[in-house]
Specification:
Layout (H helix, E strand, L loop, with lengths): L2 H8 L11 E7 L4 H6 L7 H8 L1 E7 L7 H8 L5 H4 L33 H8 L5 E5 L2 H5 L8 E6 L2 E3 L10 H8 L2 H4 L4 E2 L27 E2 L4 H7 L5 H16 L9 E7 L1 H9 L4 H25 L4 E7 L7 H6 L7 E2 L2 H15 L6 E3 L2 E3 L3 H6 L4 H13 L4 E5 L1 H4 L7 H9 L6 E7 L4 E2 L15 H4 E7 L6 E3 L3 E2 L3 H9 L21
Parallel strand pairs: 1-8, 1-9, 2-17, 2-18, 3-4, 3-8, 10-15
Antiparallel strand pairs: 2-16, 4-5, 6-7, 9-16, 11-12, 12-14, 13-14
Helix pairs in contact: 3-13, 11-13, 12-13
Bound molecules: zinc ion (ZN).
Length: 520
């Protein structure tokens, strides 16, 4: 914590209203919980403030198997597992061609697959005047935290913040004005240097497996071409500052928290994910990214406190998932069987056999560790014994080096849920969703797909991918470090309790009563 920020908080001790004026939910894409310990001494901004003054849950999880962005974001304010939100994987996340983007070209997006309600719906039912603003670098990061609500929802596409026709037919003046500054385009040729002197970073900066073997040492530079720089911008720390500046612009334009109702601001910061994929969780780049994120969040929180008074803002910080290192790095650390596992050609071979017997092309799909057979009935109708095909695929998968186990979802139902892999798959897969098999890799191995660059990645039911930060901060929060095991599905019920709201449906999470201060 830096002295000015503490002093500054001390000066803001005006009498707070009984309820917060604004609920702020910050999701950092791919922020592993251990980063906060690793860099703690250097966190002097927003992360430092939240760690020092907040209720810090040190053992928190996205406790489901497919630890990807879309399912992770959907748990945070719904209080429900992917099996219940319907958001099971990125590839079947928010993309929707029936909801084209407004003013730019790119894939349309909407919460079409999201089932049920979320925190904002409960807030709006109690306070019809409540509003939500949700922003992110990514469509799924902006859309899923507020469920199906048609509110102010914006994400970044090619240099501009936009929305889709699900939400609006045109962009409001404040968004157009912000876009009109063209900050990402004007960053063409800009350099990303280390924030601190090089001796503050113990990590090596010369690992050739990083960033596909190109440009893996500091300084990094954006393309001199402005349109290309606007695309690359998602991968440099300035993108998070831009997202936070855009959120603050929206707070002002919409007068959030200033109209008598409690409003919701959801911000999902995407750059940690891009940097983590490209350079890995043990890189100098991710270290610098987290320090810069900390500083950007510090400025952001200061501005919120000036606007509302620090006692009138309720803050949650968490992540949608963690990340597994590059296998090269893991092997060097002693995890000898860490490897990239690809089963595309095996699945293609099975499909080719099925095509010979039944026609119809690609019956089986493999995605995110799941074997899908959406047209099972049709295949059975062609006289194929589908159960024996599935059993054969399971046997072939089990023989692939790096695969730890392969299960049929139905077989997991009675199993011991103290086994994290069993529990996380049960939380993941809805019944009757066409998921025939679920495959889990050995720790430190990762799935790879043909024709994609070799990155560090996430998506396993491992603690590396599932363990995330969870911090609450606010007047009604009892600060401290809490060691019991909790989950991101606990966030929504806890916020509901803090605001006296009634969730509209059964939830999977619990109220974290231990972090709620006695009323004063
Ligand atoms: Zn990612």
């Amino acid at each position: 914590m830096n002295a000015p920020l503490l002093l500054f908080l001390g000066l803001l001790g005006t009498a707070p209203a009984p309820r917060p004026r604004l609920v702020v939910v910050i999701t950092v894409d791919q922020l592993r919980a251990d980063y906060l310990d690793r860099y703690r001494a250097q966190l002097t901004g927003g992360l430092g403030l939240l760690l020092k003054r907040g209720a810090v849950f040190a053992d928190a999880y996205q406790d489901h198997a497919v630890t990807e962005t879309a399912p992770g974001h959907a748990t945070i304010l719904s209080g429900r597992w992917p099996a219940h939100t319907g958001i099971v994987r990125n590839a079947a996340g928010v993309l929707d061609s029936a909801a084209p983007l407004v003013g730019v070209t790119g894939p349309g997006a909407a919460p079409t697959r999201f089932r049920g309600t979320a925190f904002f719906d409960w807030l709006k039912a109690a306070e019809p005047g409540a509003r939500a603003l949700s922003v992110s670098g990514k469509d799924r990061g902006a859309i899923l935290p507020i469920g199906r609500a048609k509110q102010q929802v914006y994400w970044y596409v090619g240099g501009y913040f936009t929305t889709s026709r699900y939400y609006a037919d045109s962009l409001p003046d404040w968004v157009r004005a912000f876009n009109g500054r063209r900050l990402p385009f004007r960053a063409a040729g800009a350099t990303w240097n280390l924030l601190l002197p090089a001796r503050a970073y113990p990590e090596p900066d010369s690992e050739p497996y990083e960033h596909d073997g190109k440009d893996f040492t500091f300084p990094h530079q954006l393309s001199p071409d402005s349109a290309q720089a606007a695309l690359e911008y998602l991968g440099v720390p300035s993108m998070d500052s831009l997202t936070l500046a855009f959120a603050l612009e929206g707070v002002r334009a919409l007068a959030l928290g200033s109209r008598g109702a409690v409003d919701l601001l959801s911000v999902s910061l995407s750059t940690t994910d891009y940097v983590g994929h490209a350079y890995g969780p043990d890189s100098r780049e991710i270290h610098d990214q987290v320090l810069r994120l900390d500083r950007s969040l510090g400025l952001f929180l200061q501005q919120l406190f000036v606007r509302y008074g620090s006692g009138n803002v309720l803050i949650v910080l968490t992540a949608d998932h963690g990340v597994t290192p590059f296998p090269e790095r893991s092997r060097a650390e002693g995890h000898r069987d860490a490897q990239r596992v690809n089963v595309d050609s095996m699945i293609a071979a099975v499909n080719a056999q099925l095509d010979q017997r039944a026609g119809g092309g690609a019956w089986l799909a493999f995605e995110s560790g799941m074997v899908l057979l959406p047209r099972r009935g049709e295949l059975a109708g062609q006289g194929v014994n589908v159960d024996s095909v599935v059993a054969d695929v399971a046997a072939r998968l089990r023989a692939v080096p790096g695969v730890a186990r392969v299960d049929r979802p139905a077989d997991l139902a009675g199993k011991d849920t103290s086994d994290a892999v069993v529990r996380r798959w049960l939380h993941q897969v809805p019944l009757n969703a066409g998921v025939e098999l679920v495959a889990t890799l050995r720790p430190y191995s990762i799935w790879v797909y043909l024709n994609l660059p070799a990155t560090a990645t996430h998506g396993q039911p491992s603690d590396l991918d599932a363990h995330v930060p969870l911090i609450f901060w606010g007047r009604a929060i009892r600060g401290g470090v809490y060691g019991e095991r909790v989950n991101t599905v606990d966030i929504a019920p806890t916020l509901a309790r803090l605001l006296g709201l009634t969730p509209a449906e059964p939830l999977d999470g619990r109220v974290l009563t231990e972090a709620i201060a006695a009323p004063d």
